[in-house]
Amino acid sequence: MDWTDDLSRAWSREYPDFDTASFPPLVRLARLGLLIERFQQEVVAPFEISAGDYGVLAALRRAGRPYALKPSNLYVRLHRSSGGMTKTLKKLEEQGLVERSPDPNDGRGSLVSLTPAGLELQDEIFQAFLLASQSLLAPLSESRLRADDEALRELLAIFEERLSR
Question: Selecting from 1.10.10.10, 2.40.50.140, 3.60.15.10, 1.25.40.20, what CATH number does the domain 48-163 have?
Answer without folding.
Answer: 1.10.10.10
